[in-house]
Specification:
Elements lengths: L1 H5 L2 H24 L5 H26 L3 H28 L14 H11 L1 H28 L4 H22 L15 H8 L3 H28 L2 H71 L1 H5 L2 H14 L4 E5 L5 E6 L4 E2 L13 E5 L4 E9 L5 E7 L1 H7 L5 E5 L5 E4 L28 E6 L2 E9 L6 E7 L1 H56 L9 H18 L3 E8 L2 H8 L1 H16 L7 E6 L2 E7 L3 H17 L10 E7 L6 H17 L4 E4 L7 E3 L1
Parallel strand pairs: 15-16
Antiparallel strand pairs: 1-2, 1-6, 2-3, 4-5, 5-6, 7-8, 7-11, 9-10, 10-11, 12-14, 12-15, 13-14, 16-17
Helix pairs in contact: 2-3, 2-9, 2-14, 3-4, 4-6, 5-6, 6-7, 7-9, 9-10, 10-12, 10-14, 16-17
EC number: 2.7.7.65
Catalytic activity: 2 GTP = 3',3'-c-di-GMP + 2 diphosphate
Keywords: Membrane, Transmembrane, Transmembrane helix
Length: 700
Amino acid sequence: MAAFFAQQMDFIFFFYGLAFVLLGASCWAFGTRGHGGRFWLAIAAFGFLHGALEWLDLTALIIDDSPLFASARTVLMLASYLALLEAARSYAVENGARAPPQWAVLLPVIPIALIGYFEGSVLAGIATRYSVGFMGNLAVALVLLRQRRQTKGLERIFFTAAVTGFVLYAMATGLVVPAAGIWPADILNYDSFAGVSGIPIQLVRGVIACWISFSVWGIWGQRAAEQLESPQYTRYVAQQFTATLVAMTMILGCGWVLTQYLGEIYKRNVERAARGDTELISGRLGSEIARTEGMVDLLARSSAIAGGSLGAARDVLQRHVRAADASAGYLLDPSRSIRLAVTASGLALPPGQPGPPAATGGMVVFNGAARRLEYHVERVLPDGGSVVLQRALSSLESDLNRFDGTYFIADAQGTVLSSNRSDLRLRQLWPSSKSDAGSIFPQIIMGGAWTKLAGERVFAYQEATNIDNLSLVIVEPSREIFATRLLGIVITFFASLTALVYILGRERVVRDAVQAEKRLSLQATAQELRVKATTDPLTGLRNRRQFNQALGEEILRANRENTPLSLGIYDIDHFKAVNDRYGHAAGDEVLVQLARRVREQVRESDLLARWGGEEFVILLPGASIARAAEIAENIRKSIADAPVRGGIFVTASFGVAQYRPGETATQFLENADLALYRSKSEGRNRVTVGENGQSSSSAA
């Protein structure tokens, strides 16, 4: 399982960073909408910075790391954890608790910077996690725990989840650190955690980050629903939370499958290329060996070698050494002492000395004195002696040094005889025992295997040659695999971004619709209240309060524009008798029908209002007293001539007056009221003009 997750670290870093970016977005929405202010905005900064940090770790995994880049990531990590300390401090300040000044949050920067300068970025990062990371996460957890006390229901559950998440993240990020030679990093570190659990700590942190993000999202949704007090929005928030959780799970799952698929495609291409390169090099080596073996076979069958004179044997041996492009040739007696030896330059070696090691089946050796790879092949002669050719494989090595990948030629014990990596020559290719920790590869390569070379993940392909003691290993770098997998990660990122933008945009649309609906409802309520405040509830006419307001405005206009202004007051004659005979319900119906009839008689610019009881008033802007009296007379006739409510006949008495410049509204009304009184006292069912008019009265 550890090997599987090691191949997925690029997607794990992406997932890890995305979870924190989601946390940042949730807290930003929380803080900018008035829920907790600077506390949530500081956590948003932590989320965005920490998400960027994990994506930079992904970048380092893909394009290789450097001390400067590692230091930059340590600075970014420190900044993200300082944001957590600032979140806790700002909450304390906003709630009146004792808190250090803002500059005190930056105090940990000094010792961590000194550690980074003298000890390097790794120990600086470990110090950051042990101190600021651990304490910052616990401080935020304590603040959330305090806020939890003021909540209930589902919001309380989300707060509990967020508290748990930050406590777990404090332990995951503040206690499990990169391996280092200090306590407790030498005991509890990334490697020991992965060795015990089988999963990398980065995956655990990513899952915790998702837990925190969705917990905060839930808190924000509950607060927003509580603020709007809308059942529709509350239902949508619940649906949105579920939909987001399901959508992100599906997108990340499908994105991982796509990333894995793209990576597997490239892996197969790498494996195919490695096999092809191995076959190519093996074939080239085989041709070099075959040429030498062919020459030694001819040499062994030569009569000059088998039983001729030494002079003849020397000539034959010299010709075959040159023809085979060998470096040396030997004729050995049965005791393996040199009878005859020549070099490619024609130099004869002294006889009687011990011959080279036996190479009956042929073997490749490394000539330490000449610092080159050689092939030694030997054939036994009928007399028990043997003939040996030694050929330098310099041309083969020269060609292989231009090979793009890394190659190794190793003997049966795994010792590197030749490689285009000169620093690895004569090193042990793989462990010969469990205690062998100095080998190039951490395990024996049989066939093809994904392994590590100098800390970099590579694909190594091993193939035995037609020489019993020789193995050929080709190494293909895997950096391009990450580039191929990156395409799947990018597609997953944009799919996640699209889903989140849609979900948040949809939430905004629903929120705006609910707020617009509430505004319209409030406006309708306000309009209804205004109508009730200015309208008579029985007849639907304007009430006395509205009439007094309009009267004041029309008097000001009449004075300003020097235009006539008149008003009429009328009263239903003997209305009490109608109520006594027909009942109050019938009386109310009479008032309603008469109001409707009179409304049809007045102009749009006139104001008809119920003054009180069975008394009504008409304000006539721009009408002279004569015109007002005429309108009143028409109304009087329409009331008297037609019955109301199934045969009830009633009449009305009118008093009409014209406004005189300088008089008050009260005086204006009194003149009309006096004229009404005269109408009633003179027999009712008539129109009487006030004293400021030119006519006195008219009767039916």
